[in-house]
Queue: 2 jobs
Job 1
Amino acid sequence: MKNLVISDIHANFEALQTVLKSAGDYDSIWCLGDIVGYGPDPNGCIDLLKSLHNLTCIRGNHDVAIIGDMDTKLFNHDARSSIDWQRSQISSENLEYLMNLPEKVNFQNCILVHGSPRYPIWEYVLDPFVARANFDHFKEDYCFIGHSHHALICRWDPVKEKMDWNSQVNGHYHKMAPRMILNPGSVGQPRDNDPRASFGIFDDELMKWEVSRVEYPVHITQKRIADLNLPEKNGQRLAGGW
Ligand code: ZN
């Protein structure tokens, strides 16, 4: 089966729609949280996800903030004001959808979490030390994460006690081998200076992982942000990928 793996959509409908159209054939979709936050279209993104077949979705820190389960003082000013606006916009059905998202999902040899297996909602896996500690917090061969908005392939070889950390992963196939932490990057707000939407395909028969990037009409999302008087920075950063 080919599994499309996406994360950190952040209410960017244009980016989500473009990824779903350009990802080619896939049998299922795994969404690793942060559907909402920052962008102009929280309802549009949730409605689109809900219409998809074979979707497995978990919650991220912004989803938790919207449903009111988290103190938004933990967020920076622009993130917080977007969350406040989104709370006022979100439909009751979509709020309920977010409320019902699990914190983690385990498949046979995979686990899906937003941040890290140790702290699923909040922890960022941004360096090999944090990654190493987290390999002790899941039993499966593969752990899929989002949250950092940076694509990542990180492999821990327990026999050689060796860590491979690779954040330059775009556009190449990577052979999967136990045990790995994998991040597909962000659909709606990439932060690696590449504004193109990022997504991953996990082929669980050939055991291959590929992260791809696709251009989407950034200017449309920016215009929506400006028209809605959301923080200017939320639009500016999309053009630069930061
Ligand atoms: Zn995020």
Job 2
Amino acid sequence: MDQHEYIAVIDFGSQFAHLIARRIRQHNVLAKIFTPDTPVHEYKDAKGVILSGGPRSTIDESAINYDRGVFKLGVPILGLCYGHQLIAQHFGGTVEKGKTKEYGQATLHINDKSDIFQDLSNEERVWMSHWDVVGTAPADFEVIGSTKDCEVAAMRNVTENIWSFQYHLEVHHTEHGMKMLENFLFNICQVSADWSIAAIEDEIIKEIQDVVGAKKHVFLLVSGGVDSTVAFALLEKALGKSRVYGLHVDNGFMRHRETTKVAVALKKAGFTNLHVVDTGARFLRAVQGVIDPEEKRKIIGELFVEIANEEMTKIDLDKYLLGQGTIYPDTIESGGTQHADKIKTHHNRVDLIQEMINQGKVIEPLKDLYKDEVREIGKRFKIAPSLLNRHPFPGPGLAIRTLCSDGDNEIEDRDAINAKLAEIILDSGLDLKAAVLPMKSVGVQGDERSYKHPVVIAGKATWKQLNDLSVRITNEVFMVNRVLWLIDPKTISADAHMHERYLTKDRLDLLRVADDIVMTKIKEHEVFADIWQFPVVLVPFGDPKTNGESIVLRPIQSQEAMTVNYYNMPRPVLTDIKRELKKVAFIDYIFYDITHKPPATIEWE
Ligand code: XMP
């Protein structure tokens, strides 16, 4: 990649750091993230440094160690929230616990409108989220902005080239945060705006051609996700069709017509050297009779490895480099992405792939890009928006959304749980019913994975009431890890139970139909983009006379899947989804998952 001027973002809390980096890039300026302990000489040529916000405190044992040499670099520095407090502390100001946790919108009164506040108003709406505050600014700093609850909300020391804000300029709720950032980038750092998608695309293509050389070829596993699809398109554009071998392993756990959609979308955009191996029957045989989620995952992961190995031995590997769709956040060490790496391991750990990585025979064309930049390139390649804007989808696909059971209906402590639930409902004063159900799902409580029963709530309630109840139940009834809301019908019959069911094509097809209804409806109602991910889960819980099953709706909102809120769906959308799902034979019950993560996970298995 050609040399670009860049801003270094020091990561004191990964979600904030990534958001800042993306905002900088939206100004066509390259931003690179560094961990706090990175020696400053590694970013000494940065045109400016931003110290990010983060969840820790600078004044207790959780404080993060960092290279203080950053203050001697001589380039402009901007501290945000945690970064603001760090600067105050370093230069002799005080940081203390605030009287209250300040959270939400505040009005910033600005008393100097040169440099960073140029072209802004005397009062600006900003967004705060903090407990600690800067009590007194360091002696040689000027306070340039205050809010009602925060005297030192913005300060600067022009001689030292330092600015810092208590509020978060990177979030949308800070109305003119982008303008403040623009002032920092161009008035203060004077960095060049040369990070445009068109330029990057050309550079990536040139880099692929250089690395691969004139003779070699590239082998790429194309999952159907945005990253591998765009990586495939870039490689084909750089090297021509005959030199890129794209392989999609269809494991039979894809959504309705998904494999075809990926192939068609790529073909339409002019990329055709995609090979599909249909291995659905093999995968289904391998998981026959399996109930335990982890065992299911392990079998699927291992079979994927076996098939990828088989396919790779069919080509002359000496001629090949391995392409991977790794993107920038995957290469940055932080809490969120460590987790993401872990869950993806089975798909990247094919023996031959590992060997090629060890030999340096790997090319990652997207390694410097964020997802939105990858999508931008995808758009330039005319890949269908429906494919570029997909929700994330797990490797084992619908296999981990189709729960299996040997028909066990035992619930340890059933009476104790139900008694505690009755107490909580009574205390809430709401006209609701609650009971524990016999299925189990995975959760994450503390750092531990849990495998427990859910509770169902039936009756009319607002989202707020449901949320409060859900939080209370999972906090107080430790034998459960999830709370469901019964959508249809109004009550559960006394003889409803878990049927003995395993993974079969029929059940996968039933789930595919339900999932397709849900996906179609959320697009129709234009709420697709408000939802980060939406598992639709099939549970073999139903009435004996119908032999039917249950569907659980699990729409969530999140930044990077580590912490998650369930989504408060507009009621008309929910009603419409319910109406369509009810038309499908063999669906007895429809539930809505109202659990955050933690204590539940996004997926049920
Ligand atoms: P959980 O359920 O742990 O999921 O909250 C977090 C994110 O990871 C995805 N996920 C997987 N992705 N292989 C994958 O490629 C897997 O085995 C797997 N399990 C979970 C999940 O869909 C969510 O986005």
